[in-house]
Amino acid sequence: MSGNSWRKTALVMSVLAVCGMCGCENRPGGDEDRTDYIYGDSIEEDHGGGPLGIRLGVPDSCDLTFDTGHSKLSEISLVDDDIQVANVDRAYTVSFGRMRMDTSRIQDMVESAFDKDQGIYCRDDGDENMTKGEIQKEIDLIEVYRQQALEAGQQDVAEIYESDIAETKKRMKEAPDSYTVVGEYTTNKIYIGQHDGEQYSLWISGDDTADTSGRVSIVYEPAGDQEQKYLADVDGAVMTETAGENYFGGDIDDQENKCGIDENTAEREAQAFLDRMGISGMAKCGSQAVVRSWLDSGFEIIKAEKNGYMFEFGIQIGGVDAAYIDPTGVDNLKNENGYVMYEGDRISVCVDDSGVFNVRATLSTDTDSFVRENVNLLSWEDMVNKADESIAEYYEKYPTAYSEVRFNNVEFMYVPCIQDGENLVYIPAWVLTQSENNDISEEQGAYDNIVQLVYINAVDGSCVDIIETAKCLETWYGTDPETGAGTKPYQNKCADMVR
Question: How confident is the model at residue 487, as a pLDDT?
Answer without folding.
Answer: 52
